[in-house]
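hi! just following up on the protien thing from before. the input was this:
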Amino acid sequence: MMKMNKECKKTIRIMEVCGTHTQAISKSGIRYLLPNHVKLLSGPGCPVCVTNESYIDAAIGLLSHDHVILVTFGDMLKVRGTSSSLSEKKMKDNVITIYSPEDAITLARKWPQKIVVFLAVGFETTAPIMAATIKNAYENGPENLFFLTALKRMEPILRFILEDERNKIDGLICPGHVASVLGADAFQFVTKEYQVPAVVCGFEAEDLKAGIYNLLDQIEGERPVSFLNLYQRCVRNTGNRLAKECMDEVFQKEDGYWRGIGKVSNSALGLREKYQRLDVKNKFDLSEEIISNPSACQCREIILGLKAPYECKQFGVRCTPETPLGPCMISSEGSCSAHYKYGRVIF
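and the predicted 3d structure came back as:
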């Protein structure tokens, strides 16, 4: 049995890399029920938080064309590029919020005289529905719909974190949503290659408690390092075959640029050659330099789990949900937003 020794001086760092887990952990108060030496850290699991500034700049640049309409999910509106955000450039009909990628097809058919550009942002969780939408548009039209992609892959960024000597992660809570698509086996490398105990778990408080308990049982109980799928009601070992096939048909791996982190090899999903005519970069001859130039971000250390949000001097002072300085405070799944809304730190 695991011994919960509150006098243990060794800090145990457990990271979750899913925005929904970040929100659920903060909302449930689990963080404050653990011994002081157990630290729960949030990794780069919020797609809005890791979207590079230059991607926002490219989207804003498209608005210089009068016949372009951008369609996006609402949490992208306040994310700043190097100098501005979509909400600051939004006029009556040039930026439209949608709730499903398929809404982009509907809007493009409604305004055939316009160029409609969908901002495709997310991880492997949303990549299948993005792929299905792109395939539908390719086969059935409309001809005026294009895509600006910033889809990220989870494995390369996990390797980036685990290989960073500054970031001593003792246990990992794998992203349940991504695992439901890719399968639990996609995260076996965390344990096999890096000797870090890892679990896949769900999003209820009981799921998270079970996951944290199993990690601590291995770490403090000095048990052999293992990988556990505790979310078997939704996650198969091999994942969702149809979803993966759809992604593989439409997307190919390419280098990705992460806010505050920079270039990470093979960490993005770009359109395969067959679907390149739907890539707005080709339509408007946007160069890679425009949309992929990495820049510094105040959220860098938060995104990488090197610091907790409340360790930032601006947290709760200049940086609040009403006046966010970075995307980690904008997105409801951002670690700063979750800590601010549900945290118990007095600032």
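The chain has a mean pLDDT of 90.
The chain is about 35% helix and 20% strand.
cheers
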